[in-house]
Amino acid sequence: MSKRIKLTKKIYLKEVTIKDVNYILKLRTNKNLSKYLNPTSNNKKDQIAWLKKYFLRRKAGKEFYYIFQLSNKKKLGIGRIIHLKKNLFHFGGWILEKNAEPGIALECCLSIYEYAFNYLKYKKCLNWINIENTKVINYHKILGSTFYKKTKKEIFLEFTKNSYKELKMKFNYYYL
């Protein structure tokens, strides 16, 4: 049984396991859902090999990979806390099921931020987003992320722990 933690009213963060390989592949190889993410092989053996390497990074505290779930264990999507440095993390590989109910995206995002800022004690998040993914760029800006830098392919948005505290107060009804 993998570890599940509940940090908001509806969402559990469940650590991925090898048993989740089919679900991960379903999301990661869906052309519409993963359009702006790095491509993933649809080969189950490749994904299992990748997960085994991830488990080593997880054990070393270098990366965290979660499935977003409801209390009935219905899976809603996936997200990762990656590229960890002293006071900095990246929130990446975020994919939600296509027809998630309103507010689920926000609550999933809040649960990742809650875990990274208040449990792992990071001070800043850098979200790097494909420059063409304007919906997600605008979403993070609405939540309080600010411009950090831009390359030809990506934009980096900064989100601080103080920004998160403000966001948490604004959306306190999403919390336990």
Please tell me about this protein's structure.
With 176 residues, the chain is an alpha+beta fold. The protein has five helices and eight strands, in the order E-E-H-H-E-E-E-H-E-H-E-E-H. Strands 1-2-3-4-5-6-8-7 form an eight-stranded mixed beta sheet, sandwiched between helices. A hairpin with a 5-residue loop joins strand 1 (4-6) and strand 2 (12-15). The longest helix has 16 residues, at 44-59. The chain starts with a strand and ends in a 6-residue tail after the last helix. The model has no long low-confidence stretch (mean pLDDT 94).
Question: Can you give keywords for this protein?
Answer:
about 180 residues; alpha+beta; eight-stranded mixed beta sheet; 8 strands; globular
End-to-end Cα distance, whole Å, is 24 Å
Give the integer mean of the pLDDT values.
94
Q: Helix count, per DSSP? A: 5
Helix % is 25-40%
Strand content: 25-35%
Shape: globular
Helix-strand sequence:
EEHHEEEHEHEEH
Low-confidence stretches: none
The computed structural class is: alpha+beta
> Going across the major beta sheet, what is the strand order?
1-2-3-4-5-6-8-7
Radius of gyration: 15 Å
Number of strands: 8
Largest sheet: 8 strands, mixed
Give a summary of the structure in a few sentences.
The protein has helices at 21-28, 44-59, 104-119, 134-143, 161-170; strands at 4-6, 12-15, 64-69, 75-82, 88-96, 124-130, 146-150, 154-160.
Blueprint (SSEs and pairs):
Elements: E1 4-6, E2 12-15, H1 21-28, H2 44-59, E3 64-69, E4 75-82, E5 88-96, H3 104-119, E6 124-130, H4 134-143, E7 146-150, E8 154-160, H5 161-170
Parallel strand pairs: 5-6
Antiparallel strand pairs: 1-2, 2-3, 3-4, 4-5, 6-8, 7-8
